[in-house]
Amino acid sequence: MSKEDDRALNEFTGEAEELLDTLSRDLVELEAQGRDVRPEVINKIFREVHSLKGLAGMLGFGEISELSHTLEDMLDRLRMGKIEITRDLIDLLYDAVDSLNRLVIAINDPAVSGLIDITGLTRRIHHVVSSQPQKAHDDPFADLTLDEQTKKSLTEYEEHRLVENVRGRKHILAVEVRFDFSDFDEKLRALTELLSQSGEVISTLPAIDSSGGAGIAFRLLYGSTMNVAEVAALVPEGSVTSLRIAEPAGSAESVDAAAPIDVPEEDLSLRSISQTVRVDISKLDHVMNIVGELIIEKTQLDTLTRSLHQGEALQQARLTAHELTKIARNFDRKLNELQKSVIETRMVPVGQIYAKLSRTVRKVARELNKEIELVLRGEDTELDKVMVEELTDPLMHIIRNALDHGIESAEERVKAGKNPIGRITLNAYQQGNSVVLDVTDDGRGIDPENVRKAGIKRNLIAQHDPFDQVRAYEMLFTPGFSTASAVSEISGRGVGLDVVKKNLQELKGTIDIRSVPGEGSTFRIMLPITLAIIQALVVRAGGEQFAIPLTSVEESLRIYSRDIRTVERREVFTLRDFTLPLLRLADAFHLGHERDENPDSKWFVVVTRSGEKVAGILVDALVRQQEVVIKSIGERLKTIPGIAGATEVGEGEIVLVIDVGTLIEQFGGKAREMRAAVAWVS
Amino acid sequence: MRAYLTTIIEGGTEAYDLEIVEAASGFEALKTLPHHKFDAILTDINMPDINGLELVSFLKNHPVHRSIPIMVISTESRDEDRKRAAALGAEEYLVKPFQASELIEKLRRLLKVA
């Protein structure tokens, strides 16, 4: 295969994947809107399949092109109102998109092609198309005074839209306008857009300007929630007449209150389907590296400035320092802008994986014979592309878990006075520099007592070990733990929540549980928006410098040795109204740097949070706050808990970046048997 | 599809000495009209702004342009729309996808040239 072919192929798979991705998301919307689906959604899906067909046909991918063609036919009928939206039809659409996805994957990985049953799918499509009774078309013009020319110029599709608008009890209006020939296109597009906000412009018929002027007239057929007077007020230059012989029964307004807002359809069709540009992620990585290096340069500039400021130097040096500070500040601003824009190009909406999740939920729910309503929110929340990809598996796992263990059977639910249909909500939103994903189910919740029993059974804890809710949640993330009495086909695949947690930790994320027995549980995932560059607090402990990611830092304060108390052999500090467990950073990394301690010796406490856990990290000094670029420190050091990587903080000085999550966890685990200990505070 | 059509049609320009004016939308077509004296008009049915039927309707009711012969081009599935175009007065139609020879043959018929 030539290089050119290779490139064309790559471009095709990239473009096809993107199309199918958008398609999946639109299917979710179609499913959510059900029978009241807006025509734009079906049109968009239709156009996407059409584009895929064209693309595949051009490059000779016969199977993809044929399947899209069959699908396009079916969608065309749907668009025309010749077939109806049913459960089966939506299932079929999902399956078809699934198969198309596989066909695209099979281009590079022939092993997949055995798994695709196109004949079966085509047969199902034909079945849907042929077995659905053609919807009886009542005469759409029966109640309308439609002029002959407009009537004759309607395409089949426009006629269908007119019927739908009549059925939807919309006001059917004729809006006649006259424009100057020089700018009629702009004026008419603006008018169409305006009208589309509260209705649908069904057709636009041009006519000769009967006033004898040099203009052009248009007769718009308009289905709207507004009545004649309202439209006339909106279009003072036009003449508006109602085409209904009798006003629709019942107030149009009351029907319209619930009607979804129409997106101007014409508007959509003028734009390309996707507003996104595909960029090879490695190219972005490269740009990101340059930004990183720039940041290091800038840090050196800072260091230089500081030393100039501090030095007992000449007046001139001070002035230079002042100038340098100014330059550094401007540099900083520009750098921030650059960084922000680069990060933004890496961002994709989490909604990209919603379709996948939705498919899995449908499938698993069917297998488990449970009826589930999946509510997806915050699909526009953006995350680094790499993170979104890595997030799919952990999310899928949590959702499967909720379906399998959380949601009760319909009988159980009815007995408990709940809706027999279980509900799982996935909500994504941004919080500061983090993205939060909440997976909430309204199932049976987590009973700590059950967890305790299961823990004892698995020799994870002893009979009389102290146990509470916090411990219970922790236990769920312990390797080898599962409360399901029988390992089920769904979630019991030898992978537990411990793996989910580990995966999330690799993304510098955390996971926490909130649960009320009988009412349901929420699994909360928190992730930084991007992994590449972070704000960090540089501290000194045991003669070394460390960088603590600012996202984990709640606050920092100065204390004296006498403020440190020991409770149950654990060092703690009373921070306002709660007891903060402490962790000596120098001890955690076994830095044998002894400092003489007396009640008056000063410490700094960096109050850190990892998910629900809070701990105070004891350090000797706070050095400064700065941006750091986290670099990997290689395989060998990767296994050391508490370290996320390394970074340069200027003048080539390398410091380790602390991973707060694993640090407090690991140190806590050891400390229970050792001198100091850390307890978790919720 | 537009690019595809244009390629075929441009090929025709050289071979048959035709001058072609292209419009990307219904509005563009309307704007082009006063500037040329067309021997024939070829139009798709699905177009932005105004559709092919509306264009045919406009042209066939126009005191000046009504005599320009029209060929409507659309896909197989738009059979019903083609019938409507004929009812509005379009003289010829062509189903996409088509061969260049088909286009030329129908164009000859439309222009009444041998």
Q: What's the gist of this structure?
A:
By secondary structure, chain A is of the alpha+beta class. Chain A has five domains: 3-131, HPT domain (Four Helix Bundle (Hemerythrin (Met), subunit A), Up-down Bundle), CATH 1.20.120; 148-248, Alpha-Beta Plaits (2-Layer Sandwich); 281-348; 350-528, Heat Shock Protein 90 (2-Layer Sandwich), CATH 3.30.565.10; 533-671, OB fold (Dihydrolipoamide Acetyltransferase, E2P).
Question: What is this structure's SSE topology?
Answer:
The complex is a heterodimer of chains A (682) and B (114).
Chain A lengths: L2 H31 L5 H21 L2 H18 L7 H22 L9 H14 L16 H6 L2 H12 L3 E9 L4 H13 L2 E10 L7 E9 L3 H7 L4 E4 L9 H5 L8 H6 L10 H30 L4 H32 E3 L1 H18 L3 E6 L4 E3 H22 L3 H6 L6 E10 L2 E8 L6 H10 L11 H8 L20 H10 L3 E7 L3 E9 L4 E9 L2 E6 L3 E8 L4 E3 L2 E6 L2 E7 H4 L13 E9 L2 E7 L1 E9 L4 H5 L4 E6 L5 E5 L1 H12 L11
Parallel strand pairs in A: 6-8, 13-22, 17-19
Antiparallel strand pairs in A: 1-3, 1-4, 2-3, 5-7, 8-9, 9-11, 10-11, 12-13, 12-20, 14-18, 15-16, 16-17, 18-19, 21-22
Helix pairs in contact in A: 1-2, 1-4, 1-14, 2-3, 3-4, 3-5, 4-5, 12-13, 14-15, 15-19, 17-18
Chain B lengths: L1 H15 L9 H7 L8 E4 L7 H9 L9 E6 L3 H10 L3 E5 L3 H12 L3
Parallel strand pairs in B: 1-2, 2-3
Helix pairs in contact in B: 3-4
Structure description:
The complex is a heterodimer of chains A (682) and B (114). Chain A is globular. In chain A, a hairpin with a 2-residue loop joins strand 15 and strand 16. Chain A contains 22 helices and 22 strands. In chain A, strands 14-18-19-17-16-15 form a six-stranded mixed sheet. With 682 residues, chain A is α+β, with helices and mostly antiparallel strands. Chain A folds into five domains: 3-131, Four Helix Bundle (Hemerythrin (Met), subunit A), CATH 1.20.120; 148-248, Alpha-Beta Plaits (2-Layer Sandwich), CATH 3.30.70; 281-348; 350-528, Histidine kinase-like ATPase, C-terminal domain (Heat Shock Protein 90, 2-Layer Sandwich), CATH 3.30.565.10; 533-671, CheA-289, Domain 4 (OB fold (Dihydrolipoamide Acetyltransferase, E2P), Beta Barrel), CATH 2.40.50.180. The two termini of chain A are 60 Å apart. In chain A, helix 1 (3-33) packs antiparallel against helix 4, helix 12 (281-310) packs antiparallel against helix 13 and helix 17 crosses helix 18 (469-476). Chain B has 114 residues and is of the alpha/beta class. Chain B has a single domain (23-111), classed as 3-Layer(aba) Sandwich (Rossmann fold). Chain B is 46% helix and 13% strand. Chain B is built from five helices and three strands, in the order H-H-E-H-E-H-E-H. Chain B has a three-stranded parallel sheet, sandwiched between helices. Chain B starts with a helix and ends with a helix. The model of chain B has no long low-confidence stretch (mean pLDDT 82). At the A-B interface, helix 6, helix 8, strand 2 and helix 11 of A face helix 2, helix 3 and helix 4 of B.
